[in-house]
């Protein structure tokens, strides 16, 4: 009877253990299913362009044929505009106390973030003259315009949506890949319904569905610089979509080159 009592006692525990294992398997299956739609892509270089290797690139965006670039570091931050690969036609320095971050261009203004000052600067898109400053909470990293709605990163896995005129927050979404958060989202580029983001301290760019926060593609942008060039360069950061094209311009902080690329299957 003692053995029978032991079996009866252990059996419910075994059932519970099996149920727990089944639940864990189900959770992992759901996570795998969530990651099944993630495309694996790589960059294919179509053209190399020169880039100012003193520019600590924080934001990169086209408006028509004009390339806008925002740079960082205290005492060195600026915003510039002009043809890609050529000397800028207009450039404005930030005050020494401000560390410039991401930029975006809308129909009637340019927004420029700062890193830890909590200040967004609105500028005239032609002259880059400062119009006003607005304050926000937290850090500023990347910024892009999605048809009148701004998308902003702060180095976390969360993207914040903002009104393009007032800069007031209107919502957030958490970015995940295979059910796991994707941290350190940096410079952003809005293309149609997608948001592309550099992942800080990596050679990866992720494509995000801002409606769900799911990563839909991971793009390998490694190997663009030679070993000699990479020795004096910082991380990949800067992605700008060429208008009416499937081409992108990418670069990095202190990179001597920019690359016109397409994204192709990694295989």
Automatic annotation (TrEMBL):
- Supply the alphabetized keyword list: Signal, Transferase
| Signal peptide range | 1-19
Source organism's superkingdom? Bacteria
Q: Name one Pfam family in it.
A: Glu_cyclase_2
Q: Does the keyword Signal apply?
A: yes
Q: Which GO terms describe its molecular function?
A: glutaminyl-peptide cyclotransferase activity
| Residue ranges of the region described as Disordered | 71-91
Q: Which InterPro entries match?
A: QCT, Quino_amine_DH_bsu
Q: What is this protein called?
A: Glutamine cyclotransferase
């Amino acid at each position: 009877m003692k053995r029978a009592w032991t079996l009866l006692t252990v059996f419910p525990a075994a059932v519970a253990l099996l149920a727990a294992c089944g639940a864990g398997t189900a959770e992992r299956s759901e996570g795998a299913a969530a990651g099944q739609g993630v495309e694996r892509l790589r960059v294919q270089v179509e053209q190399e362009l020169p880039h100012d290797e003193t520019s600590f690139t924080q934001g990169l965006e086209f408006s028509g044929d004009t390339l806008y670039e925002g740079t960082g570091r205290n005492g060195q931050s600026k915003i510039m505009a002009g043809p890609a690969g050529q000397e800028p036609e207009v450039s404005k320095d930030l005050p020494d106390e401000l560390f410039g971050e991401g930029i975006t261009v809308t129909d009637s203004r340019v927004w420029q973030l700062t890193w830890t000052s909590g200040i967004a600067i609105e500028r005239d898109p032609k002259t880059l003259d400062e119009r006003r400053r607005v304050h926000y909470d937290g850090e500023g990293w990347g910024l892009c315009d999605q048809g009148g709605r701004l998308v902003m990163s702060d180095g976390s896995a969360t993207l914040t949506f903002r009104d393009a005129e007032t800069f007031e927050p209107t919502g957030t979404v958490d970015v995940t890949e295979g059910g796991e958060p994707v941290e350190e989202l940096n410079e952003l580029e809005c293309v149609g319904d997608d948001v592309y983001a550099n992942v800080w301290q990596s050679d990866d760019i992720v494509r995000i569905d801002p409606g769900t926060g799911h990563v839909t593609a991971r793009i390998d942008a490694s190997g663009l610089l030679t070993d000699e060039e990479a020795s004096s360069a910082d991380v990949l950061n800067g992605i700008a979509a060429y208008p009416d094209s499937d081409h992108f311009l990418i670069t990095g902080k202190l990179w001597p080159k920019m690359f016109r690329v397409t994204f192709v299957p990694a295989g």
